[in-house]
Design a protein that fits this description.
Number of strands: 5
Order of helices and strands: HHHEHEHHHHEEHHEHHH
Shape: globular
Distance between the termini: 76 Å
Largest sheet: 5 strands, parallel
Helix content: 55-70%
Radius of gyration: 21 Å
Oligomer: single chain
Number of helices: 13
Strand order of the largest sheet: 2-3-1-4-5
Strand content: 5-15%
Length: 264
């Protein structure tokens, strides 16, 4: 009788552990992606659990941005200072090569939210994906792979909602819409009116993407460690602040080495 009474109590335990491993409350289809790709890694146990050496506070920098706020430029300035790899449009190129599709086709799916129907059906259709579903599949896999490597800066794609929050510096770059529209108009050679519409539409597209994929409001400042206005601060000062934040989380020997290498 004692054995019969205790066995039902043990069955729910794995389900509770799986729930605890989803701090971002991911939707079912994205959780299925990560489970499928990370299954072999999960069997190895906690990453670097045996490593006794001091760990940096931030292994990666994820930058969310408003369109035209200059996040790409800031990311590259930080990457040059820290000698970190920057991933922005390079991610689309990599996914297009992996999917063996033209770059224009992959770009059409970038930060595009799946439909509700796709959200329901994807976990039941693991053998074959439609192109959009395949793109999301590769995107999540790529973000996780970059996160494991570390010393990386990822611009956009909701990467900060996928990587572990306790070792990722999550930042949002904003600026007034008028300033962002002017920057887009100058860069692409389009009218200011067209640039304003493009900024509005692209921002709305990303907010819906984050809401559907990660169940978050990506415009909420509470989702980030730092929110910077690139217009009032300037791109260079924004980069300086992010470099200082990352440096402050380095173990002291590494911090001294980095400071010495940057000294004139």
């Amino acid at each position: 009788m004692a054995t019969a009474d205790t066995s039902p109590a043990r069955e729910p335990e794995p389900e509770r552990r799986r729930d605890q491993a989803r701090p971002w409350n991911l939707p079912a289809f994205l959780t299925a992606m990560l489970d499928r790709w990370l299954g072999r890694d999960a069997a190895r146990g906690p990453r670097e659990s045996a490593d006794k050496a001091p760990r940096p506070r931030f292994r990666n920098l994820c930058i969310s941005r408003e369109t035209g706020a200059g996040a790409g430029t800031i990311a590259r300035l930080v990457g040059e200072r820290l000698d970190w790899k920057v991933y922005d449009h390079e991610m689309i190129d990599a996914i297009a090569r992996r999917m063996e599709v033209p770059i224009e086709e992959a770009r059409a799916y970038d930060e595009l939210a799946p439909s509700v129907i796709q959200d329901w059906l994807l976990p039941m259709r693991e053998e074959h994906y439609a192109p959009h579903e395949a793109y999301l599949d590769h995107l999540a896999k790529l973000v996780e792979a970059i996160g494991r490597i570390g010393d990386s800066i990822i611009v956009g794609r909701g990467a900060g909602f996928i990587l572990p929050r306790d070792e990722t510096l999550s930042v949002r770059i904003v600026a007034p819409r008028k300033v962002r529209a002017q920057r887009l108009a100058d860069h692409h050679g389009i009218s200011l009116r067209t640039a304003r519409r493009a900024a509005r539409d692209r921002d709305a597209r990303f907010l819906r993407f984050a809401r559907v994929m990660y169940r978050v409001n990506a415009a909420d400042a509470h989702q980030y460690d730092i929110v910077l206005d690139s217009h009032s601060l300037g791109l260079t000062l924004c980069a300086d602040l992010l470099v200082k934040a990352i440096e402050s989380g380095l173990p002291q020997p590494a911090r001294d080495t980095l400071s010495a290498g940057m000294a004139p």
